[in-house]
Amino acid sequence: MSEGKKKLSFTYNAPVTLTFALVSLIVLVVGWITKGKSTQMFFEVYRSKLSVPFFIRLFGHVLGHADLSHYASNMTLFLLLGPVLEEKYKSSTLLEAFGLVALISGLVQIIVFPHTALLGASGLVFMMIILVSAGDLKRGEIPISLILVMIIYLGSEFVTMIAVKDNVSQLTHLVGGLCGAVFGGMLNSRQ
């Protein structure tokens, strides 16, 4: 092999993002094998008595997905945005943000919609969209791109939440987006 050619290799470039996507896929497959029982028990959040499964669901609901289409739609943006965020803010910071969004969106779901279940990573994806857009946020400067993203994504979710009755939790999207805006402001003010 000549010195001018580099050997092609794979790298686990974004450990939190890649591990999350892989664990979510495993949860999806196990859910399919158990005909949804494992997903309902551990990866959907809903109001129930306080128990070990309840606390697992409170955080684990972001790993569960209803089907392959739901998984693919979340993971496409997740895998696109995650490596950028891990590089900018570090893996540990992104993991903490995931945990906070999971907790907050789970609690909001239990309080506001006590008779329905929530699952999926869309709240995290919306947080990531806003967090990437807030990447250039500096003291005293607000990027116009951040304002436009917030208007387009959060505004459309708010309108859809009011106008359309479907099985999608726009409230979770809003919670994720608002968390992304808060995290973006806090993280970028430290830099």
Could you please describe the fold and organization of this structure?
- With 191 residues, the chain is mainly α.
- The chain has helices at 15-33, 37-42, 52-60, 68-89, 91-112, 122-133, 144-163, 170-189.
- It has eight helices and no strands.
SSE order and pairing:
Layout: H1 15-33, H2 37-42, H3 52-60, H4 68-89, H5 91-112, H6 122-133, H7 144-163, H8 170-189
Helix pairs in contact: 1-4, 3-5, 4-5, 4-6, 5-8, 6-7, 6-8, 7-8
The percent range for helix content is: 55-70%
Global shape: globular
| N-to-C order of helices and strands | HHHHHHHH
Q: Distance between termini? A: 44 Å
Helix-and-strand structural type: mainly alpha
- The share of residues in extended strands comes to under 5%
Mean pLDDT: 85
How many strands, which pairing sense, and closed or not: the largest β-sheet? Answer: none
Low-confidence stretches: none
The number of distinct helices, counting runs of at least 4 residues, comes to 8
**Integer-rounded radius of gyration:** 18 Å
Count of DSSP strands: 0
Task: Tag the structure with descriptive keywords.
8 helices; mainly alpha; globular; 191 residues
In short:
With about 190 residues, this protein is mainly α.
